[in-house]
């Protein structure tokens, strides 16, 4: 577009908003196809953008006739080996397809997840792989739900979002944890302490349920005091404090079952500080990160992280390239 003096003039989203009679934020949502915008308002904004020949720099390449060749990966905790290896697998696959990956870390905070989703929409990524921190089975408002139900292809990994019709790729948390519990019980353990990180996501709930199933076969139950949650599992001091409290309150514990591998370091350090020998004095069973587990004498449930990341990426690119919906697809990988 040119101004009256003949010089090229950049049309801003603010000018589009003024022409459409809406706020700049509403205009951005309408152009980016995210958030809460009525269809009538969206049409008005798009009409204004066409009248002004508006092509926003940040999203010009993504106008569906020309992609950004960028996807987003939103993960819970980049410090956790599961998520770092998952991001590596996704990025490697995407790079071989000529795509870049924007990796977003939530630190297990739902509000960060929402900000990352909005940012990725604004950047007009071609698709998103999401390991959500949203509480499973919790209700969310329509404005928030629209973020997860946008037109941009989205695949969930490891964790579900309640009621969301999006493909899910995960490992067999229920079955794997059942087998893990059976392993400890067959060794003769009856007083088993459990520590988990994010208690509100479905992967943790499924692992806890699988362990309870194993206990039930031995006519045992998981007493409330025998399971503790550490929401800041990436902070060593927090994990040590939870481990200490659990062991102090239950001195008869003979085995610890860690449902998330960021807890390995905390538990191991606390046991060493107590002079406990592993596994002679107390057994340690964890979930994932076999290499670290072996170094610290921790028996571990093995997750096929690379397969999970690759399959999630395959589904996402099928959605991008072929517009396949995969709405209710669930892919489950066995653990070992």
Number of helices: 12
Give the overall shape.
elongated
Bin the strand percentage.
5-15%
User: What percent of residues adopt helix (DSSP H or I)?
Assistant: 40-55%
Q: H/E series, N to C?
A: HHHEHEHEHEEHEHEHEHEHEHE
Radius of gyration: 24 Å
Structure write-up:
- This protein has 336 residues and is α/β, with parallel strands linked by helices.
- It is 43% helix and 14% strand.
- The protein is built from twelve helices and eleven strands.
- It has helices at residues 13-20, 24-32, 39-51, 81-96, 110-122, 142-148, 173-186, 202-217, 236-249, 264-273, 290-295, 305-322; strands at residues 70-75, 100-105, 127-130, 154-157, 168-171, 192-196, 227-229, 255-258, 283-287, 299-301, 330-333.
- The strands form two sheets. A six-stranded parallel sheet has the order 2-1-3-4-5-11, sandwiched between helices. Strands 7-6-8-9-10 form a five-stranded parallel sheet, with helices on both faces.
- Helix 1 (13-20) crosses helix 2.
- It is elongated.
Précis, in short:
The chain is of the alpha/beta class and 336 residues long.
How would you describe this structure in keywords?
disordered N terminus, 336 residues, 6-stranded parallel beta sheet, 14% strand, alpha/beta, single chain
Write the layout of secondary structure elements.
Layout: H1 13-20, H2 24-32, H3 39-51, E1 70-75, H4 81-96, E2 100-105, H5 110-122, E3 127-130, H6 142-148, E4 154-157, E5 168-171, H7 173-186, E6 192-196, H8 202-217, E7 227-229, H9 236-249, E8 255-258, H10 264-273, E9 283-287, H11 290-295, E10 299-301, H12 305-322, E11 330-333
Parallel strand pairs: 1-2, 1-3, 3-4, 4-5, 5-11, 6-7, 6-8, 8-9, 9-10
Helix pairs in contact: 1-2, 1-3, 2-3, 4-12, 7-8, 9-10
